[in-house]
Specification:
The complex is a heterodimer of chains A (about 375) and B (about 280). With about 375 residues, chain A is of the alpha/beta class. Chain A folds into 2 domains: about 25-225, HUPs (Rossmann fold); about 245-374, 3-Layer(aba) Sandwich (Rossmann fold). Chain A has helices at about 5-15, 15-25, 55-70, 85-95, 115-125, 140-150, 260-275, 280-285, 315-320, 350-374; strands at about 40-45, 45, 50, 75-80, 100-105, 130-135, 155-160, 160-165, 170-175, 180-185, 190-195, 215, 230-235, 250-255, 275-280, 305-310, 325-330, 345-350. Chain A is globular and about 65 Å long. Chain B has helices at about 35-50, 65-75, 95-110, 130-140, 195-205, 255-270, 270-280; strands spanning about 1-5, 10, 15-20, 25, 30-35, 55-60, 80-85, 115-120, 140-155, 160-165, 170-175, 180-185, 205-210, 230-235, 245-250. The longest helix of chain B has 18 residues, at about 95-110. By secondary structure, chain B is an alpha/beta fold. Chain B has 7 helices and 15 strands. Classes of the chains: A alpha/beta (about 375), B alpha/beta (about 280). At the A-B interface, helix 1, helix 2, helix 5, helix 6 and strand 7 of A face strand 3, helix 3, helix 4, strand 9 and strand 10 of B.
Chain lengths: ~375, ~280
């Protein structure tokens, strides 16, 4: 939940923020009544019949945290009559959950802040988890911020690493545009809340034989209690759907491509590979492609099998969003560009020249393979 | 119609550098700007003011120099600006920040009732996207996050219809005033400041409120003391131990060979990638 630390605070933090906290008169001791809070929860996000993969990624992280603490993992499912919550629970067990809390009510059909905030807050107050994880999606962030404020507890956004320090959650996240990392803890409040972006954590292995039990709770709200009405859901038209976070191959372009026209070379290579197109912040700000394609600290986190960066210098802002990719290829005229420090393969050359050659090479190679396959 | 727009002054993160030895932020010469996401909120608020009349009050919590950010917003056409500034706010996390801003909005509301509160979807330095929802919960406003479009606003009926960005689509939501909207980026384009507004921004007094002016009663809820989260460690990201395997194109004559070589390397280091790509393309 912390905003990026102010410079004075960052310095203090480097010297040991816990001491600083003590000096400020703020409590870092967990009050007695909060010591009963036990277990790690994952809010399982689903919409129109599908669980968001980030929930399973979080389940994998939750399992690791719970094992360190010697506690259990629970999934939390809120939804309406048409949602297959029991099926999602069964899936949750295979990814590491021991229990699932299910709250089903007609007013929970389709996400709305008000009933979901009440539902999740009530569940927390009744069953008292020590840690609660949510995906850093438009739903997870909307809900996490509301629930944390209602409960008056700490929330750390967009974590890249979750660990246990002592008995508390140590949530690490990038700060100052990714130039630094900071570890944030909530010592005197429960639950300790954190969000993680899709694709930050790896997908855990499924264990099909695992099972668990269901605990149900009623919401206790009726439609007339809720001010905001969901009039309709307009699904994205296919051509507009940019599923960057889950793409296997991403070709990204940066300011080194000089202009919007040259950026088309990125699309050419992407088409040949059946890949998605990504971009740096500078490129989306210049309007060479849609904002949804921005990779980095203020854009999306991706971890494709192959990431080709053309004309991208590798500023930390961009790096934090893509460095988990399996294979990173960088094309840049400057042999000293920072991107070559973390790419696997580097080509020192002009992207306007290399991209068409690479497109031709892949096209020839893949055409041959496709013909053989057919 | 009375709209409050909350903004934050942030360092231009594109220009931040970390000292290579001490791992501290080198702030010298890094310009402070209005959080870019907040400008979409401001522009949307100004459009509503153009259409329905009324006033747009800017609100910012920060050090005294954040006055510059507020003046910038006045030059775009905001009516009034309030800077909530007090040493006791230092070290606030998002929970403590939303508490202080909420108190200030209540105070603003005593002068003229507030119909709408706008924030950006997140800041570029904290990236948390939590202050907007926090204010909404504290004030009991109807929360509308990631709004891409305001379809309809009926001031007499006190209703509001918006489009909200969700995963895989857009929700069309209807609610009542007062509401809090966090505006999605790229949804509008900030207007140019007019000469009149620029002159007015220079003359107009930015009101400065300390914690008492802002009506804050419980000092245990502000600043470091009111922040449940504690920064326990700040450190530099680990460098990858190995540098990329490099090839040079040189004058360009060898570019085809370099690309063929790269293709072989990619497909041999990641053996399943080739088959998967062929399969995807054949489908």
């Amino acid at each position: 939940m912390s905003e990026a630390p102010k410079p004075a605070m960052a310095a203090a933090a480097a010297a040991g923020a816990v001491k600083t906290a003590g000096r400020s008169g703020r409590s870092t001791e967990l009050p007695e009544h909060l010591k009963a809070y036990k277990g790690v929860w994952v809010f399982i996000e689903h919409d129109r019949g599908q669980v968001h993969s980030v929930s399973w990624e979080l389940m994998g992280e939750a399992r690791k945290l719970a094992d360190k603490l010697g506690v259990e993992v629970s999934g939390v499912l809120l939804g309406g009559p048409a949602d297959k919550l029991e099926d999602y629970a069964k899936e949750a067990y295979t990814y590491g959950a021991d229990h699932c809390y299910i709250m089903r009510d007609p007013v929970l059909q389709g996400y709305r802040n008000e009933p979901f905030t009440k539902g999740l807050t009530d569940l927390v107050n009744k069953h008292q988890p020590e840690i609660m994880l949510l995906g850093a999606t438009t739903m997870g962030r909307d809900l996490a911020g509301s629930v944390a404020t209602t409960l008056g507890t700490g929330l750390t956004a967009d974590c890249t690493e979750l660990n246990i320090d002592g008995r508390a959650l140590a949530a690490t996240r990038p700060t100052f545009g990714g130039s630094l990392l900071c570890t944030i803890m909530t010592l005197a409040y429960r639950p300790q809340m954190a969000t993680m972006r899709p694709r930050t954590a790896p997908m855990p292995r499924r264990e099909p034989e695992r099972s668990g039990d269901i605990i149900t709770m009623a919401l206790g709200m009726i439609e007339t209690d809720i001010v905001t009405k969901l009039l309709e859901f307009i699904p994205d038209a296919n051509r507009n759907t940019v599923n960057l976070a889950y793409a296997d191959i991403i070709i990204s372009g940066g300011k080194g491509l000089k202009n919007a026209d040259n950026f088309k070379l990125v699309w050419d290579l992407a088409r040949v590979l059946g890949a998605e197109v990504g971009a740096t912040r500078a490129v989306t700000q210049a309007g060479w492609c849609e904002t949804e394609r921005q990779v980095g600290q203020t854009g999306k986190t991706v971890r494709p099998k192959l990431y080709i960066a053309a004309g991208i210098s590798g500023a930390i802002q961009h790096r934090v969003g893509m460095e988990a990719s399996d294979v990173i290829v960088a094309i840049n005229t400057d042999a000293n560009a920072p991107i070559f420090d973390f790419a696997h393969h580097g080509i020192v050359g002009n992207a306007m020249q290399v991209l068409p050659a690479l497109t031709a090479a892949f096209r020839a190679h893949l055409d041959k393979r496709i013909r053989r396959a057919a | 119609m009375h709209i409050v727009v909350c903004i934050k002054q942030v360092p231009d993160s594109a220009q931040i550098r970390v000292h290579p030895v001490t791992n501290t932020i080198m702030r010298q010469g890094v310009p402070a700007i209005v959080n870019p996401y907040d400008l979409f909120a401001l522009e949307e608020a100004l459009r509503l003011k153009d259409k329905f009349g009324g006033r747009v009050t800017m609100l910012c919590m920060g050090p005294p120099q954040a006055e510059d950010a507020l003046r910038k917003c006045l030059s775009f056409g905001a009516t009034d600006a309030i800077l909530v500034t007090d040493r006791s706010f230092a070290g606030a996390d998002t929970l403590a920040t939303s508490y202080a801003l909420t108190a200030a909005i209540r105070k603003i509301g005593q002068e003229q009732a507030v119909d709408l509160v706008f924030t950006g979807k997140q800041t570029i330095d904290g990236d948390t996207a939590q202050v907007g929802p926090g204010i909404a919960k504290r004030l009991g406003l109807n929360l509308l996050t990631y709004v891409s479009k305001i379809n309809e606003l009926d001031l007499d009926g006190r209703t509001l219809t918006v489009e909200r960005r969700a995963e895989g689509g857009v929700q069309r939501l209807q609610t009542t005033l007062p509401s809090l909207i966090t505006m999605l980026e790229g949804t509008n384009e900030m207007r140019f400041a007019t000469m009149d507004d620029m002159l007015r921004a220079g003359r107009c007094a930015v009101r400065k409120w300390n914690k008492d002016d802002a009506g804050i009663e419980d000092v245990s809820k502000i600043g470091l003391k009111g922040s449940p989260t504690i920064v326990s460690k700040v450190f530099a990201p680990k460098a990858r131990s190995q540098r990329a395997e490099m090839q040079e194109v040189g004058d360009g004559s060898g570019v085809n060979d370099v690309c063929l070589n790269l293709l072989q390397k990619i497909f041999t280091t990641h053996p399943t990638l080739e088959a998967e790509t062929v399969e995807r393309l054949s489908a």
